[in-house]
Design brief:
The protein is of the alpha/beta class. The chain folds into two domains: 2-107 and 207-245, D-Maltodextrin-Binding Protein, domain 2 (3-Layer(aba) Sandwich); 108-205, Periplasmic binding protein-like II (D-Maltodextrin-Binding Protein, domain 2, 3-Layer(aba) Sandwich). The chain has nine helices and eight strands. The strands form three sheets. It has a four-stranded antiparallel sheet with strand order 3-8-4-7. The protein has a two-stranded parallel ribbon with strand order 1-2. Strands 5-6 form a two-stranded parallel sheet. Belongs to the bacterial solute-binding protein 3 family. It comes from Salinivibrio proteolyticus.
Length: 250
């Protein structure tokens, strides 16, 4: 009898220990969306990977990263098989199964122009773009100030990466894209530093959030995680992490 009781106590301790470890681990659903998340090699990289790692550490959680295509990531969150995700826009259907941690950690999109050095004068006004075609990613959305101006000629290609490579090889005049994405691609592929960013910026307001599944075992941590995000935002840590990640290599 004593032996059975001892065995039962040991089993309960093991189960409790495993549960305790699970309680302090967040499963992060990670799509491939550089520079925010890059899952081509492990350990995964990206601005969001660094932000979520710092957030988990400050809040006292370990992090388990789960690679998934974006639609599958959302399904995993809905089912509670993943706990947390980044860069999520608010949509009515998503609010059914997601806690949006506040504040939003991204509040605007800036779109910038890159040109080949020496090809143009400094571009400060939209009117200076009227004389040349601007290469864009087909199907991408841009601020109305750019997309609805019929005086701007656009030249679509299938991917922004192709546009940057064409610009490097002087087979495109100018490329427009979301600032973080273009900075990342230029930093990675413009090894001879032949491109330059123009001062003209088109901006669009957004609110992108870090989210927690409502079926997560850690749903009670919403306030704690939100408070931690607010502290990271107020201190400038998140903005600094964004900029540091994209700083050109010396």
């Amino acid at each position: 009898m004593k032996r059975l009781l001892f065995t039962a106590l040991i089993a309960m301790q093991l189960i409790h220990g495993a549960a305790a470890n699970t309680e302090k681990t967040l499963t992060y659903a990670v799509p491939h969306w550089p520079p925010w998340t890059d899952t081509q090699t492990y350990p995964y990289q990206g601005i969001d990977v660094e932000i979520i790692t710092a957030l988990a550490d400050k809040a006292g959680f370990k992090l388990n990263m789960l690679k998934c295509a974006w639609k599958r990531c959302l399904r995993l969150l809905e089912q509670g098989e993943a706990d947390i995700a980044t860069n999520v826009l608010k949509k009515e259907d998503r609010e059914v199964y997601l806690h949006y941690l506040t504040p939003a950690y991204r509040t605007n999109l800036d779109y910038v122009i890159y040109t080949h050095k020496g090809d143009m004068h400094t571009v400060r006004t939209k009117q200076q773009l009227y004389s040349l075609p601007i290469t864009i990613e087909r199907g991408a959305h841009f601020p109305d100030e750019f997309s609805q101006d019929k005086n701007i000629q656009t030249r679509p290609v299938s991917q922004t990466l192709f546009a940057i490579k064409q610009l490097i090889n002087q087979r495109a005049n100018a490329v427009i894209g979301e600032e973080y994405q273009l900075d990342y691609l230029v930093n990675r592929f413009d090894t001879n530093h032949v491109l330059e960013k123009q001062p003209l910026i088109f901006s669009k307001t957004i609110n992108a959030y870090i989210v927690l599944s409502k079926k997560s075992h850690h749903a009670e941590a919403v306030a704690q995680l939100s408070d931690t995000i607010a502290q990271m935002m107020d201190s400038g840590q998140i903005e600094s992490m964004k900029r540091d990640y994209l700083r050109p290599n010396e």
